[in-house]
Specification:
Elements lengths: L1 H19 L8 H17 L4 H19 L5
Length: 73
Amino acid sequence: MLNIVSVLIGLVTLALGLVAFFPLLGWMNWLVIPIGIVGAAVGALSSSNGGRNLNLVLIVIFALRLSLGGGII
């Protein structure tokens, strides 16, 4: 059950993160990354690894996008 919740959080993170890829909306990554961290934490509590892995991949992608845009120095 927690894996399904984690995957749903990951899908919300993905949807918001895709919006953050548009120019001048990179600041949204500061909101998207903590949502992904919550999803990874919920996924870590489940017996399956799918939701946790999805959220970890999304965190890495959006942190990379944030660093490329100058948000993380």
